[in-house]
Amino acid sequence: MTDIWDTDGGVVTAVSRSATHTFSKPNADGIRLLAGLGVEGDAHLGEKVKHRSRVARDPNQPNLRQVHLIHAELHDELNAGGFTVSAGELGENVTTRGLDLLGLPTGTVLRLGEDAVVEVTGLRNPCAQIDNFQRGMLAAVVGRDEHGTIVRRAGIMAVVLAGGEVRPGDRVDVDLPAEPHVPLDWV
């Protein structure tokens, strides 16, 4: 059996953004990442947290969720499980294929296309809104492993280190941080 994951990188299959706090984000031909801010024209753009529940708790937190990435293989799995989901519908800005996003350590640097560079900050912590999108989907992306530890599979979050355009078809190159690697936790 061939491993679906490329340990060196992957490819961008779709990019998405929404100027308002919608659950799903419409696909675009390209997005521009802005250093220290996020996706130009996206509701989560900014140095400080933009996620509404986090703003309510403390609006001065740094925005560790500037860019949301999901692996297209999750869409494949969800569709095979009876859901109907495509790129951008789970709120991601960048959809990839061939890269084990969830297995990356905290601090991994991803080079997207020619110029854009992001640093992985952690896992997306999906909320009940995902069940409003499609009933039962939260249980499909959040579960427990054999030790009872919560496993989140709804993508990863990153901050923008260097800006640039990102388009479908762009390569994703991976620079792992120095060891010891710190597993991703939710942000």
Automatic annotation (TrEMBL):
<dbReference type="Pfam" id="PF03473">
    <property type="entry name" value="MOSC"/>
</dbReference>
<dbReference type="InterPro" id="IPR052716">
    <property type="entry name" value="MOSC_domain"/>
</dbReference>
<feature type="domain" description="MOSC">
    <location>
        <begin position="26"/>
        <end position="175"/>
    </location>
</feature>
<dbReference type="GO" id="GO:0003824">
    <property type="term" value="F:catalytic activity"/>
</dbReference>
<dbReference type="GO" id="GO:0030170">
    <property type="term" value="F:pyridoxal phosphate binding"/>
</dbReference>
<dbReference type="InterPro" id="IPR005302">
    <property type="entry name" value="MoCF_Sase_C"/>
</dbReference>
<protein>
    <submittedName>
        <fullName>MOSC domain-containing protein</fullName>
    </submittedName>
</protein>
<dbReference type="GO" id="GO:0030151">
    <property type="term" value="F:molybdenum ion binding"/>
</dbReference>
<dbReference type="InterPro" id="IPR011037">
    <property type="entry name" value="Pyrv_Knase-like_insert_dom_sf"/>
</dbReference>
